[in-house]
Write a structure and sequence with these properties.
Largest sheet: 2 strands, antiparallel
Oligomer: single chain
Strand content: 5-15%
Shape: elongated
Helix content: 55-70%
């Protein structure tokens, strides 16, 4: 199989199931941004991390592929005629609960926040902050897509929680590397 197909040369692409749309369609923007986020999480994994964070990030990357697959499927094709899901794995409440458990466990190790903090720390924590911003953009695009077509609420909820997770690991990575949070105090 060749890496190039030439089918997108005229500005269109096919969704899962064969429906053609323009490459600037909100659906393409949403799953393209999820793909960008997935790649950025791969960048975070390239830094020395504790094995728990590393494994969590691998799990999240797999979830993001599943989200991308669902977003690449027109809403009228997500379910088969027999009522069964077309995709083998679809994000559900248990994935969201797992993410919340991870956030709570990591947050318990961190200093209680009393102010907003400036994004930064070392390179790994700074990249986690950038990933959080990409995640927020993905969330906005998924919400916008939901105004035009049906998007399962679990997808937006998972991505929303993922941005909280990325913020939390940014703080943890900074702390693990002896970088203190720098508080933003209005007026200073």
């Amino acid at each position: 199989m060749k890496i190039y197909t030439k089918t997108g040369d005229k500005g269109t692409t096919s969704l899962y199931g064969g429906t053609k749309v323009n490459k600037d369609h909100i659906r393409i923007e949403s799953y393209g941004t999820v793909d960008e986020l997935n790649s950025y999480i791969g960048l975070i994994r390239s830094y020395p991390l504790d094995s728990i964070l590393y494994d969590q990030l691998i799990s999240i990357q797999k979830d993001l592929f599943n989200i991308g697959a669902e977003l690449a499927t027109p809403s009228d094709k997500v379910m088969l005629a027999n009522g069964q899901p077309r995709l083998k794995v679809m994000i559900d409440e248990s994935a969201i609960e797992t993410m919340e458990h991870w956030i709570d466990a990591i947050d318990a190790e961190l200093e209680v926040m009393t102010h907003f903090i400036l994004p930064g720390g070392n390179q790994a924590s700074s990249h986690a902050h950038v990933a959080r911003c990409i995640c927020r953009r993905a969330e906005r695009l998924i919400v916008a897509l939901g105004h035009e077509e049906t998007v399962r609420p679990e997808i937006a909820k998972y991505v929303n929680r993922l941005s909280d997770y990325l913020f939390t690991i940014a703080r943890k990575i900074a702390k693990d590397n002896a970088h203190e949070d720098i508080k933003w105090i209005p007026g200073e």
